[in-house]
Specification:
Layout (H helix, E strand, L loop, with lengths): L6 H4 L18 H52 L40 E3 L10 E6 L6 E8 L10 E8 L2 E3 L2
Antiparallel strand pairs: 1-2, 2-3, 3-4, 4-5
């Protein structure tokens, strides 16, 4: 349909490249494509940065709570003369952090930040006497390449035979500076 000589038929339409009549406002396809492209580029930059910031925040929270757990183990040792065992009634439980929790040495909720909502492994080696050392390994739920070691031992698997006492983080098997 042509608008030549038929003004009524062409009302509300504008020729290509021309603005629409007053009162009819909108965006051109080119403007919408440019805005969409800019949003896409910004998202491609911002989303990975935001995800990394979230992981770093979780890492710091786990390290902080890990220090609390380390202190809880030390206090348990002072009161009982040994660390929790791996078997028996005083065995350390990976999901509940018993007996630290029931004895009120630890009241936090670190499990919520861990892969599977529990620690990966616990050991209380007997090489220095019964339950005179301990280690707990955990994996961060937001990034499974980040693992934690809370220990007072030279037998922790992540430590490679080196004596460590404290909270340590590893990313892809390499110890991180905290």
């Amino acid at each position: 349909m042509s608008c030549d000589g038929h003004r009524a038929a062409c009302r509300g339409r504008s020729a290509p490249g021309r603005r629409s009549p007053a009162g009819e406002r909108g965006f051109t396809l080119l403007e919408l494509l440019m805005v969409t492209g800019i949003i896409g580029v910004l998202s491609a930059i911002a989303i990975p940065l935001l995800q990394r910031a979230i992981v770093q925040s979780e890492l710091k929270a786990v390290v902080s709570e890990g220090r609390t757990i380390h202190t809880a183990f030390k206090n348990y040792y002072l009161d009982h003369g040994q660390y929790p065992s791996t078997t028996g009634s005083d065995a350390f439980e990976l999901d509940t952090f018993e007996p630290l929790r029931s004895n009120r040495y630890y009241v936090g909720n670190l499990g919520a930040r861990l892969l599977g909502e529990q620690a990966d492994a616990y050991g209380s080696p007997d090489d220095q006497g019964q339950n005179q050392e301990f280690w707990v390994e955990m994996t961060l739920s937001k990034d499974s390449s980040i693992r934690f070691l809370i220990c007072d031992s030279d037998n922790a698997p992540l430590s490679g035979g080196t004596y460590l006492d404290g909270v340590f983080a590893y990313e892809d098997g390499v110890q991180k500076n905290l």
